[in-house]
Each structure stands twice: as structure tokens, then as C-alpha cells.
User: What shape does this take?
Amino acid sequence: MTGTTTSKIDTKRTQMADIARLAGVSTATVSRALNGSVLIKQETRERIQELARSLNYAINFSAKNLRSGDNRTIGVVIPYDINTRQHISDPFFLGMLGSLADALTDQGYDLLLSRVDAQHLDEVAKLYETGRVKGIILIGQWRHHDQLNELAMRRIPLVVWGAQLPGQMYCSVGSDNRMGGQMATEHLIQKGCKRIAFFGDVNLPEVAQRYEGYVLAHHHAKLPLEEALRVATPFASDLAQKMMIEFLDQTILFDAVFAASDLLAISIMGLLAARGLDVPRDYCVVGYDDVDAASHCHPPLTTIRQSVDVAGTQMVDCLEQLIAGGRPESRVLKIALTERQSTRQRKFR
Amino acid sequence: MTGTTTSKIDTKRTQMADIARLAGVSTATVSRALNGSVLIKQETRERIQELARSLNYAINFSAKNLRSGDNRTIGVVIPYDINTRQHISDPFFLGMLGSLADALTDQGYDLLLSRVDAQHLDEVAKLYETGRVKGIILIGQWRHHDQLNELAMRRIPLVVWGAQLPGQMYCSVGSDNRMGGQMATEHLIQKGCKRIAFFGDVNLPEVAQRYEGYVLAHHHAKLPLEEALRVATPFASDLAQKMMIEFLDQTILFDAVFAASDLLAISIMGLLAARGLDVPRDYCVVGYDDVDAASHCHPPLTTIRQSVDVAGTQMVDCLEQLIAGGRPESRVLKIALTERQSTRQRKFR
DNA sequence: GTGAAAGCGCTAACAA
DNA sequence: TTGTTAGCGCTTTCAC
Assistant: This one.
């Protein structure tokens, strides 16, 4: 028995042989016609295509893939860290996923979504090695640089969203975090801020680079750096919230915040508001990502925009090159500062 | 030529035949051994499994699927509406996606993610008919009830996240929207609110049911309904924002808001704050979904919690029944009100 | 311009 | 307990 025992009238799905019989040609001709081969006389081709359509024919991908040793599926992997609970709860990732879905669809790929425990990143190798996917896009580098390098050495076509790191064997696409950090900080300095708190987990490469930009801006402006102003919050979570409250309770002197993600920025703005403090009058705040919420929150958030759409197409482009046997360069995407209320109307002191 | 021309040393992937040769058995034995068949002597079985492992063997799924006429992939579809730009920008959907990813993985399924133009929902049928997926989970019913019915009539195993509607041919899983709307409204009434604005697009079945609950609560409390208090905002977007501002500008008398999504609720709270109005002192606000942001915003938002994890497993469960030829009932999941600051400390007037 | 035929890597009925 | 054999539905070389 072939199909599942779903119904008694197991209407076998139409296949090439059926079309061939009906059209009075061979399956070879049908195959060619359906693939738009110029070898087939136009008239025959159109007749067969029409027939296929009217029969509601749908090709069997398993057979096609088996025969051609090929497939058009890309694995998109979102690692999650059980310990830090750094799940995909950030809307930025959803945006990225959407962007990838579109970019892959455009190129005729299917998207196999997989959540993988970051402890066992080598599981993603299986995806490739079983022939399920032709390549892998990994969203979120976290702190798994070494594991990623290992995957790349196994010759797995792999593109990672994240920072470009020294000694990197895999292809990465990411935004210019250093520049982003610098621009954000310079913007604040320009608004007259002098004691800028930095919120973010510098153990993550991307955040570390944003912090480097922050440091650089301070150097340029000949502003001193202060340890107490660096708060190592994880990405938005209860813990981050707790750390921010702690920070505020310490009554450390500061006049601005640069947060490594919009979620953190929005969170701190809420905390400040709850204490009767006003943004931007009392504190300026800059975020990172430019998620939807950044423009809808109050006050609307000045932030560093990472272009998600571009990211998607770029990653797919890299992956295609990798699949074709190329060795694409990692890419660093341009960012831009979007100024909104959270840093406006600030008076110099 | 078989493989892609990636490298010169085109190391052909190991396959069953290789293992068979090395083990001095037939491929049939290897197949059985690897599938853990009890027909094979334990010793042989273990030897073969060990060999496979050491050779880093990975089965070819195309071949397996072709032969067995089966596969373990489920399509998860997120329709997007080009017109209303109702993309998947709501974090609630990300949560759902994550939950589904986990539930499917637990059951040994792969997740094929697909974004489909809501105008062409029949495209999802192709996913099934080409044998790419064994069933389909659709997140977001929007206003496509009829199209979904049609898909169901084509005998496509389909589970939809959304409201249960009369004359529904497909299996749906959703939360108890009516009850949710009622609970939210009753909670507000209990806090002393009398003129409760409702924000949400009642053209969407889920929102319509929430509104029904709102109406019911008013009846129970013998409170009059007022047209002016119903604001047909779409799901969070610039347009929604604009409509809320318009509403506020009209200076319609109201003392509370029940928003059909947390995003809307958070948005309105920001708008109110920007006008120097306080939640919950001046206005109480209740949202819907209980997304992460609801507890991190300020003030923390009272909201109706939809249990995303349960939703994922329930949908997968339904789909499995459908695939097995069953006819599972649609499910309505329990909701719960989570009280937070946005409705606290309200004094009766 | 079209057809015949081989076979992709695996599974399962039937034999032994 | 294991092997033999016959395909699953498609693509593609080679022949006409």
C-alpha cells in the first residue's frame, strides 16, 4: 500500500506517468516540458503544461531530489541558551526571520526552521549531512564562535548573523556594531551628555563591539570612562530589569543611557518614568535595532537602525555563493542613527 | 556527475551500501539494523550501528521518503496581508512559532516555515500536495475563514490558530476569546471603571469574540454600551497609533481601555503618558496576550494571558490526529487574567 | 523533437 | 536471522 490509510478511496496523486499517458507522450517529455526545456516543441510543451495544471499536478520532491541529488531547502537555526534563557523573544529576531523567509522564497528556497540548544550546535551539522538542507543560516552568534568555526571546517555552507571576529572561518553578516556604538555615543555627547551609562552584555561579540564604539567616542571627545557606568545586563529579561533597578538604586551619577538593544532601552525608560524622571529632559536614551516598538514607545526612541531587509538578502546571497563553492567575504552592513524624542530638546549645561 | 562540483575530491557521502560492504551484510540488514528492527540479531545490530556512527553516516531523506511515501515535516504558515501590512511583527507570533518549533521537535517533526500572501492561501495547498509536508499549521486566521474551509475540504491536514467559527470545516485551536474579553472588562468594571474604550479590529474573528465578551460584561453590569468607545484599530501599526491619537483628540469621556492586544495597550499607555495622564490613576488599561513586554512596560500591564506553550502542543496534537485520519475537535484554551499595575490602586468614585 | 532505459538510495515483501 | 529483489517518481544520457 502506498499512501497513508487516510481514506478508502485512496486517490493516488497524479504523477508524470498519468500526464504522459493522457498526452500520449513519454514521461521524459513531460519532465522536460514541465521544466520548460527548449528541446520540446513549444506546442507540445504548452499542451503538457496546460494538462498538468488542469490535473492539479504537483511534483514529488522526494523523487526529484533523490534523482537530481539536489534540493532547495535552507535551514535557519536559532540557537537558544537554556541557562541564560536567551530565547528568541526579541522582536528583532522575528523581523530577521521574516526577512529571511522573504529572501529565501524569492530565490526559490524553502525554509526549515530549527531551534537548537546552543550547547549542541553540532546538531545543525546533521541537518546538512542528512541532505535535508543545502545550507544553513544561523541567527545569533552568541558566544559560540569556536563551535561555529568547527562547523565551517566541516565544510558546511554556513552563514551567521553576528559580528565579524578575528580568526573567523565562517561567513558572517552583521551590522557595523563598532560604528553603531560610536554614533550612538557621539550623538549623546553632542546633546551635551557627559556621563553615559552603557547597558549590555559585553560577553556577546556584537555588544562588545558596540561598547568599543562607545569607548572610542569617549576618547575622541576626551571624556573619561567610568566602570560604574557599564552595566552588564543580558538581553532583555527579568534579570536585566533587576540589574537596571539596582543600578538606579545606587544613585550613580549619569545623564544618559546607551542600551545595546531597544528592548533594554524601552525598559530603562519605563523604569525612569516610574521614578518620575523624564526622558529626554533628565536623561537621554539611545537604543539599538530600531524595532517597531522603538517608534511606538514613549517617548519615541532614538536608536541605531539595523536594516533587517538588507540583512536577509545579504545572508542568502552569501549562502548561495558558499553553496556554489565560493568563498564569500563576511559582510558588515551600514547602520544609521534614527533620531527621535528620547534624545531631543536637550539643553547644553 | 552526482554531487555539486564543490571540491575536486568529491568525497561521496557514505551510504548504506558502504556500511553493508564493510560489515559484510546486505543493505537490507543495514536498513533494518539502523531502524532498530528486532528481526536483526542484537550483536549484528549493534555492530552496524557502531559502524554507521564511526563512518558518520547520515541517511538520505529523499530516498527514504520516496520509498516509504512518508515524511516528517510540518509546514507552518504565517499569512501576511499586503494591504493592511499585518505582517508578523507581533511578538506574540514569535512566541507561538517558538512554541511550535519545540512541540514539533518533541514529536520528531521538522518545521518548514512559510510566509504566504493571504490573498493566495491556496498556495499552502501546494506544500501538502507536493509531498513536502505532512500537514499544515497556520498561524493567524485573519479574515480568511472561507479560504481555510476550502483547504480543509481538499482534505489537507490543517490546523489553524484562531477563533472557532460557525460552519467551520477546519480544526482550530485558540484561546477563549469571549471569556477573555469578558474577564478583562469585568475586571475593569470591578475597579470602578464605567466608560471603557475598546481598541481592536472587530473584523478579525478573534477580536470580534473579545468584543462580544466586552459587550456581555456590560450587560451583566447593566452598563450602557457606547459606539464612540469602540475604536476599530488594526493590530499594532502606525495606523493604529494614528487612530488612537484621533480618539484622544476627540476628548471622548472614558476612564479605561481594553485593548485587543498588548501592543495596542502599551501604545495607548505611552500616548496617555505623553499627555501627562497617569495609568492607572486616570485610566485603567487591560491588554491581551501577555507578551514579555507586558510585564516590562510601565506601568506593568494587566492582561489576558494566552498560554503559548500549551497552544503549540495542542496544535501539534490536533494535527497528528488529522494526519492519522481522525477528526479532532477544535479546541478552546483557557485564559487567565494577570493583574499588574495598570489596573491597580484604583479608587472607586 | 522525442522516447527508452537506467538508476538516484532506500525499504519491505517474500524467500531462504 | 538474513538476503534477494522489486520498485518509490523522477531526470537524463543516449539513441533514433
Q: What stands out?
A: Residues 16 and 104 of chain A are 27 Å apart (CA to CA). The domain at 177-307+337-343 of chain A is CATH 3.40.50.2300 (Rossmann fold).
